[in-house]
Amino acid sequence: MSALAAPNEVVTKALLRQVNVPGLDRPAALITLDNGFDHTKPNTFGPGGLTSLDEAITAALAANPAFIAVTGKPYIFCVGADITGLPLLANREQALEIGRLGHRVFARLKDSEIPTFAFVNGAAMGGGLELALHCHYRTLSAGAAALALPEVSLGLIPGWGGTQLLPNLIGIPAATQVIIQNPLMQNKMLKPKQAAEMGIADVLLEPADFLERSLEWAAGVVRGDVTVTRPEVDRDMWGGVLYFARQTLDQRLHGAVPAAYKALDLLETAKDADFAAGTAAEDEALADLVFSEELRSGLYAFDLVQRRAKRPAGAPDKGLARPVTKVGIVGAGLMASQLALLFARRLQVPVVMTDLDQARVDKGVAYVHQQIEKSVSKGRMDKGTAAKLYGLVSGSVDKSVFADADFVIEAVFEDLNVKKQVWAELEKIVKPEAVLATNTSSLSVTAMAEDLEHPERVVGFHFFNPVAMMPLLEIVRGEKTDDVTLATAFAVGKQLKKSSVLVKDAPAFVVNRLLTRFLGTVFAAVDQGTPLDVANSALDPLGLPMRPLALLQLVGPAVAYHVGGTLHAAFPDRFGVSENLKRIADSGQPIVVDDEVNAEVAKLLVVGDQPLTAEQVRQNALDALAQEIRLMLDEGVVAEAQDIDLCMILGAGWPFHLGGVTPYLDRTGTSERVAGKRFLPRGAASLSK
What we know:
Layout: E1 13-19, E2 28-34, H1 47-62, E3 68-72, E4 76-78, H2 92-110, E5 116-120, E6 123-125, H3 127-134, E7 137-141, E8 147-148, H4 151-154, H5 162-170, H6 172-181, H7 192-198, E9 203-205, H8 210-223, H9 238-253, H10 258-269, H11 275-290, H12 293-306, E10 327-330, H13 334-347, E11 351-354, H14 358-377, H15 383-392, E12 393-396, E13 407-410, H16 416-427, E14 435-438, H17 445-449, E15 458-462, E16 472-477, H18 483-495, E17 499-504, H19 511-528, H20 532-537, H21 548-555, H22 557-570, H23 579-587, E18 592-593, E19 596-597, H24 599-602, H25 614-635, H26 641-652, H27 662-667, H28 670-675
Parallel strand pairs: 2-3, 3-5, 4-6, 5-7, 6-8, 7-9, 10-11, 10-13, 11-12, 13-14, 14-15, 16-17
Antiparallel strand pairs: 1-2, 15-16, 18-19
Domain 3-hydroxyacyl-CoA dehydrogenase C-terminal: 509-588
Protein name: 3-hydroxyacyl-CoA dehydrogenase
Pfam families: 3HCDH, 3HCDH_N, ECH_1
């Protein structure tokens, strides 16, 4: 076993077999990557897996085949390096060694005199995609679930040739998108069609007979019957693209994500450096980043999203969940219409909306139909699926249509009395076992259900906007919510492909409570006299997904003011009410225009004469977060600090390089200074032990 091998490495074996392909005078060598598990545990490469691949390539070359092809087990090609071993690396030399090992093994496919092919049959990420890039040709399954080079999101760089090969294959604009832009956009994945259009794959094949068609296509290439042409890469625009990309990073991250800047440097190297020099630069960059705090936070965040999100803390036994065969939605506005489309697409059951008049109902149903039509026109949905969805979504002004619904969710005006009135009316209509869910963003689920005959079936089901994109679902347990209701809610959340977190019925729950405290602190500085542009840029060193005022504009000043009022009523000592925010909400004007503070909005403000510096604003905001998180954990709003971080990553786009919120507060000493102790054990998301 390699000296670098992690004790718990699940070795992905490279299984070699000879395959007779019609039209060729000798067999092909087919290497299948397989770690022995099903698709729920994807193939990865640790030292043991790289060694197995190395041995398989040696054996394949010795057999002098017609061609060599690498593919994966069902649904999975390879998702890259086994990152669980990275924290076990003892020193920089070991980090260099793991980079060099991957480069040496993969390069054998690139340098082979025998044609090499990657048959990308499923998910290919990180080092898996880099392995495919080393092959001379690539086929791609139209059913591949995920294609990406996500390393920058973790605080790393594509370290096995990706920064050198990709831009010289598909051009520098597309490579910059895949290597830097997509990872920083909540780790956006490529669809197979998009990857093929970029030129990452030479041919896109249907999944049903993917391997057979790939072998046939490869044989055609070897015989000369199939000619692969690739457009020439434009090298004149290289410098300009990277200059613009660096400016964009500076504006957005302000140096907060070292990996993104390292990746830019490597992309610049790829223009003129020979491959050996470029990959040596990758080794050095990888070794630098492996021992960074950002990587430790990134690995912690990755573990939350990949593991904890799939096993929600405190969720009841899933066997208690009731089946849902029909969904009712109270309301037909924008949020309700988004929910209707999501429920219909994911659950594939009838979904019916109601509202006060037929015009509103018709508008809501029309919105759903328009979104379906857009998906068809963009090739994201076939006509058969669209026809089915058209038939599943309907509307009515008569709430009696909910009589046979198993799950009814309201998305009406955020007013407790209005919501209580809705449930009082519905309880007389729906069947006894129907779950009643509220999409409230800040109101008490317990109070909403208190006058009902069966409050045990009311549960909070808080989505984030836009509904289709944001992965978080806060599931709120009221004082009387029973386990069957809760289990059904979690089961529905899973069917909707959301990451659900169990939250106590506390004002504004998790994300809105923290964002309101955070934004309230920033706006308090404005009220004191801090210029809007200073307050708005104060958090730039953190590299957050957007500045405070842009976030406020996205949420909506009126909504923010309303939620702030709810929290002020609950916690008047910590949540203030800003009259300046009300003035902005009443004005209806945008707060920022092209990322610049709107001068007209600034004129509306009435401010004091005690302005703060940017550093003071930033520290006040971090102190407020640390205090609020400690109080939330003491109140039992969630099970652990990890759930706070998961909520902020998935519901607010808090970046991986911070690890969410609590690792950064620990790392900067803020948590101990403000709250008296760390949120996480030492070493959980940092280099410190």
